[in-house]
Amino acid sequence: MPKAEQSEVPCISLAKTRYTGHEVTAPRAAGPSGRTPALKIIHQEPTLKILILSPHRDDAAFSLSIAITNWLTARHTVTILNIFTRSRYAPYSDAAFVHENDELSYVTAMRLREDEAFLSRITQNLPKGLKNHLHMEDLRLKDAPIRLRIPFEELSDTPVNPADSAIIKIQKALTHHSEQGTLEALVIPAAIGGHVDHLTVREAAIALAADLPVAFYEDLPYAATHPSAATDLEVLRESAEQRNQPLSPVVYRIESAIELKRKLVLGYASQIDDETGTLIANFAQRYNGGERLWANDTWLRAQI
After folding, report:
1. For the chain: N or C, fewer Cβ within 10 A?
2. Do residues 69 and 254 lie in contact, with contact meaning Cβ atoms separated by under 8 Å?
3. Residue 279 predicted with pLDDT over 50
């Protein structure tokens, strides 16, 4: 898999990182990770600023709604950085009836509204003081069909282009967040399914994140449906081992997780139908109502 040049890209410093301590008030059964994620937590300062890289507007919601809720309840600050937000892709909308010249702006605005609704829904049951712990930013890059001029059916068969200007723009955004003190832990797509936008985000971030607490999330719906899902995950873990940065599974849970997640993901009505929404939500049954991430040792030591 082609990678961006790393020699000219300095690793993000951990100088500003502050780790956190949690105490579980109600023990729960340990998941496959061997750890016991908890929803009810006694807060001990300081907490972390977690930055999530979401290739498209729906990826963080589809793959991390449960984990995000868990982190917010633990009083971490979470920022979702959407990367490829300029898009014509909205298969379950009326975009096909819009004039071709207006389609890009129409779909882009529609998907923004879906994201704004997601922010409102996922925080509605949080205490008032925690609602402002979730933020969303957009890098406003074009998605692969526009940027790389490839058809939708080739999105998972196209390798990362090391000359793709998106790589540098993603890295500049990460450096900016580090300098501003808003990047203390990083959450990256595992790129299960091989979607070129997900691969591009992953490779751009890996080049910078060697010293950070890092966790990779299992991209949905691809983790549930793509024939290469198991192989892709194994390749990710082997690659991390070769970099001497082994990954361990960590599961995050909340109460009524599947029901909540289904409501959240179905808000992206331009992207999925009810059947796919149920498929995404039910994937959490594999982890007893949780979401599994693959974390480096620095993440584990931070006890996120």
Report:
1. N
2. yes
3. yes
